Amino acid sequence: MLTVPDADLLGVSTVRIDDPGALLDLLPVAGGLAWTTADEGLVGWGEAARIELSGPDRFARAQAWWDALVTTTRVADEVGVPGSGLVAFGSFAFDGEDATSVLIVPSVVVGQRDGQWWLTTVGGASPVLAAHNPPRAPEGVSFADGARASTEWMGVVAEAVRRIDAGEVDKVVLARDVEVCASAPVDVRWPLRRLAESYPGCWTFAVDGLIGATPEMLVRLRAGVATSRVLAGTLRVSGDANQDLRRSEDLSRSIKDIEEHGYGVRSVADALALHCRDVDVPSNPFVLELPNVMHLASDVTGTVTDGATSLELVASLHPSAAVCGTPTSVALEIIREIEGLARGRYAGPVGWIDATGDGEWGIALRCGEIDPQDPSRIRLFAGCGIVAGSEPFRELAESNAKLVPMRDALGS
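Now predict its structure.
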């Protein structure tokens, strides 16, 4: 589906404003868009333009649509920072054959960066920031197994390990889902606010019914410098400071986790090298500690030399070994064969792009997708990287730990 207003009507105006308060508090009950972290971000609402895509060429078609829109839009931008002016929020399917991807240009955007705030209006939208009722806590929330029961999913993990041991593949990332049912439509502002408060170091997002807080930046492009944060290798946080210090040290020395992490780093570095010079790969990962889990993490950077936009970088990077496996093509076929789950936009790129091509795109992790036909129902997702030596019961425990942010966010 494609909706674009008359080009003569798509004028864009960005002006500085005083601090309007917490960005997520500005969102309406329904239809809000968000990409925020502790001290910066964007929120939007309304639709000035939209495109829905599917298929393996979804990124190229989205870029072509965006290029055409940029060239036919009049922009007055007195701020001139990444995310001001014309902006589109996007969310892409993990597998192009599995679900629909979307780019949305909001009618109104409010942004915050480097101590300044701005307001962007598109197509004559009202510049007034409306007051909204406080978010409502979800009611009557229950959880149930999704496509596979827990014991069945452990069997799938065992099958992946068998294939790894047989030499078919080095790593496979397997996902599972959990069904959530509430007694009334969920006000998404509630879980978004709780996620932002509990995980300020993550990127809280909302795009067309997909909500979550991801710790993994697929790619950020600013002023020609591309940065990707790779996460692979996970341990659950115990809450005991001394024990977690020892666990952090164990994680940093774990051969299994370092091997899994290395696959992800190499796939990202190879993809960035197609567009960049001076790709910098850290010699060792660091341990990123979140309230519920700790990860091995590496920030890979490069200087873009071919003029690629953030969305074009996404097209080269996705799917990385961190969410698919190694070799990627073989891992993807195994996922399609044994996972038994329609991932939709889970583990796909989510974020934004502006008219210069700069943008931020995370991987849609620690997230849930609201049923468009019944907003009282949500599917939550978690995934684990399976390598030689992976134990099914430990992978199930890891997946449960990764479900904690969304489960807690839906609590009252």
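The longest strand covers residues 225-236.
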